[in-house]
Here is the input.
Amino acid sequence: MGLLCGTIRDRSPGGVPMRIRPFLVLLYLLPSVLTAQPAPGDEPDVVVLKAARLFDGRGDAVVRNGVVIVEGGTIRAVGEGLAVPAGARVIDLGDATLLPGLIDAHTHVSGESGDNWLQDAMNNMRRTVPEVAIRATEHARRTLMAGFTTIRDAGSGEAIDVGLRNAIRDGIVPGPRILAANHALGARGGHCDESGFPYKLFPELGPEEGIASGADQFRDAVRFQVKYGADVIKICATGGVLSLADEVDTPQLTQEEM
Here is the structure.
């Protein structure tokens, strides 16, 4: 089941689509609409979303007079000009386009890159874990507002991605569904390690933080991430674009380690 989001071209000076403002409110409301469960014996609430256009992803066509029928926690019907069930609550979005929620399979929602990488790195080192976590909630909200209803977070620290996933799941903060990796796994001195800095400037990392050597240590690292909430496992098999001490095309793990 996925939320649906709308797209409008007109934008205000602050970057928020002007004619989509009512729909932004809808995106906040939809998680409660879709997850609310009726009491035993009660009929589930039915909500009907209507918009000028609809793209369902099953073909290339965009249909007019799009209708989405949500019953309890399930999207029951999607199509053109569908009949509104009796007693349903209708939300008419007007000149908007409904489409399935987008999925981003590689994010790091606990951080955000700017135009100055060195300044970003310095800012991150000066921030406490609580500040990083609070900032992550805003990154998640903006991601949802951009139409992404599911993301895979490919590595974080201090279990921030796991905690954020749980807070979104429990309705504490708005955001997309998160598949969390916890710490990414990699070789010592590789893309996932704190490399490129003088010795002892940072503590050396181990399997708990995802840095391992040999198949046995990597198995232990995987078990550790899963123990503390990982949905997926991210491995850094080669160097990375933003690594300070390795090349992007350099293999860093053996087949046995992977």
User: Anything to note?
Assistant: Residues 66 and 196 are 53 Å apart (CA to CA). The chain has a mean pLDDT of 84. The chain has two domains: 4-100, 103-227.
